[in-house]
Inverse folding.
């Protein structure tokens, strides 16, 4: 099994994810054209750079205070976000409501737009997102992005029986099945690579498990280039349980 960056990338490309190779070449071209920076050919970094550049066009000057008001009090017929996502955006783990605090703002805006456009389904989020205009989406996303992110060591105690398997999948993947590590796309220790790859470190296990199962079942389809569907299809129920538990409090 190869765990080095170049080895992982080669296997990843050979495993049917040719879009990564294409993306990597586009990043390399942008670097050559700019001639302003040089760095090692690290696929995760280069992919992140391209996606970051692509996301800049959507950046807006949002009103964080207005976003806080919507999050804590709601507006019009929109319920307060905190009712499900917690007073400080920490989420509600037992119910599977995700942590939003410290999440990338562009990712949050995309999810709200996808709920509104029915590209992502959820009976609670669909009517809320539909009632928000673009400015309000930006405001709420900027507010949650401004909150402190998850801090290592503050998650639930890990199931020691699941930890080795969860850590293996998150850190190294399973190349026997052609599956990359979670951190290959979601960044070092799961901190996220905006705008498409959210932070997953410290996200509650119920939410992660629900999303992996949704991708596996084909009921969530708004991942870039079908990447998460391809990954989830390679995970067994035991794998999903182990990696979800590990990501809730990675070490």
């Amino acid at each position: 099994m190869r765990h080095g960056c170049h080895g992982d990338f080669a296997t990843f490309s050979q495993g049917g994810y040719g879009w990564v190779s294409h993306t990597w070449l586009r990043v390399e071209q942008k670097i050559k054209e700019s001639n302003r920076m040089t760095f090692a050919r690290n696929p995760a970094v280069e992919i992140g750079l391209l996606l970051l550049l692509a996301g800049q066009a959507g950046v807006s000057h949002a009103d964080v205070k207005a976003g806080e008001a919507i999050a804590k009090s709601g507006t019009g017929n929109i319920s307060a976000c905190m009712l499900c996502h917690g007073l400080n955006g920490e989420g509600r783990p037992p119910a599977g409501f995700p942590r939003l605090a410290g999440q990338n703002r562009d990712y949050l805006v995309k999810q709200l737009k996808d709920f509104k456009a029915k590209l992502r389904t959820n009976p609670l989020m669909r009517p809320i997102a539909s009632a928000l205009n673009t400015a309000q989406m930006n405001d709420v996303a900027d507010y949650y992005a401004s909150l402190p992110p998850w801090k290592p060591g503050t998650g639930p105690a890990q199931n020691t029986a699941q930890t080795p398997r969860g850590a293996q999948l998150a850190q190294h993947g399973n190349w026997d099945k052609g599956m990359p590590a979670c951190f290959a796309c979601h960044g070092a220790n799961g901190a996220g690579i905006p705008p498409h790859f959210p932070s997953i470190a410290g996200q509650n296990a119920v939410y992660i498990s629900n999303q992996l199962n949704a991708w596996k079942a084909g009921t969530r389809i708004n991942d870039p280039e079908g990447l998460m569907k391809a990954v989830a299809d390679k995970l067994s129920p035991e794998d999903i349980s182990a990696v979800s538990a590990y990501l809730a409090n990675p070490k």
